[in-house]
Amino acid sequence: MAPPAYSDLGKQARDVFNKGYHFGLWKLDVKTKTNSGVEFSTSGHSNQDTGKVFGSLETKYKVKEYGLNFSEKWNTDNTLTSEVSVENQLVKGLKVSFDGMFVPHTGYVGPFHYAISYKYRRKATEDAATNATFVLLSYRSKTGRFKTAYSHDRVRVDADFNVDLSGPLVNASGVASYQGWLAGYQVAFDSQKSKITANNFALGYSAGDFVLHTNVNDGREFGGLIYQRCNDRLETAVQLSWASGSNATKFGMAAKYDLDKDASVRAKVNNQSQIGLGYQQKLRDGITLTLSTLVDGKNFNAGGHKIGVALELEA
Does the keyword Mitochondrion belong to this entry (predicted)? Predict the structure, then answer.
C-alpha cells in the first residue's frame, strides 16, 4: 500500500479534532449523483456573528476508461474554478492535473492562469471641442497550478508550481514508508526571490489502530499527533505543538464515540480551556444532523459561547 501524501500525515488525528464541529455556523450540504455518473455538491453556510452567507456548487464527472476527472466549482464570491486530471495513463501511479479559474469582474484565467482585464472609460478634457474617447487597459496576472503526484508501494511524491511569468512558486514533497514507519519532507521555493520559503520534516509510525506523527516546520515549530482507536466505537487523539520563537505551547485532547450505527458524540478540550462538544445523528438514509457547541471555560459566565448546526442531505 502506498504511503499518504505529506499533507495527509496525521490525518486520522486531525479528523477527530476537526470533523463534526461547525462553531458559529448554520450549514447545509446537499449531494447527489445522476445515472450518468455526474456528481453534484451544493454547500452553504451563514456566519452567526457577521450574518455573511457563503455558498458553492460543484460538479464532478469521471471517465474511468481513460482515467480522466473533470470538476467545476462556483461560489457566491462569483468565482468559477475548473480542474482536469489524468490518472494512471501515462505511467501507473502517476496523476497529472491542471486547474483554471474564471473571475467575471477581473478577467479569465485559464489552465495557465494569465489574465488580461480591459477597462473602458470616457475622459473629458478641459477643451470640450477636443473631447475624445480614451481606452484604458489594465493587465492583471493570475497564478494557477500544474500538479503532479506519483505513488508507489513505498514512496509518494507530490509537486506543483504556479505558472507565473515573473517566476513560479514551486512546492514539492515526498513520503517514504518502511515496516510501518513514515518519513516525509516538504519544501517550497520562490523562484522570484530565489528563496526557500518552507522547509518541513515529518516522522511517524502507523500500526493500524495506532498512529504517531511528529513534525518540524522551518526549524522553529515542533508538533506531534497521536491517534488511537481503542475499540470499534471509540477513537481518541492527542495534539501537542511548541514554537521556539514565541515559546507558545498548545495542547489538546479529543475523542469520538459511536453510540450506535446512526449516532455519535464528540468532545475536545485544549490548554486554553476551550471545550468543544458535538452530537451527530443520522435521521434517515441520506439525512444527517450535526449539533456542536464551543464553550470558553475561562470566561464561562461572560458568555460568548458558540453553537453550530449542520444538515447533510445525500441522494
Answer: yes
Other residues' Cβ atoms within 10 Å of the Cβ of residue 168: 18
Interatomic CA distance for residues 182 and 274, integer angstroms:
32
On whether the pTM is more than 0.85, the answer is: no
The number of domains in the chain is 1
> Of 17, 15, 13, 19, nearest to 227 (Cα)?
13
Question: Does residue 112 surpass a pLDDT of 80?
Answer: no
Query: Which residues have C-beta within 8 Å of that of residue 1, sequence separation ≥ 6?
Result: 153
pLDDT tens per residue across span 152-198 = 999 999 999 887 777 888 999 999 999 999 999 999 999 888 999 99
Per DSSP, the residues of 69-82 read EEEEEEETTTEEEE
Grid coordinates standing for 18? 476537526
> Is there a domain that residue 160 lies in?
yes
- From residue 286, how far is each of 32, 58, 72, 96 by CA, in Å? 10, 18, 23, 33
Q: Residue 213 maps to which CATH number?
A: 2.40.160.10
Contact 116, 103 (CB under 8 A): no
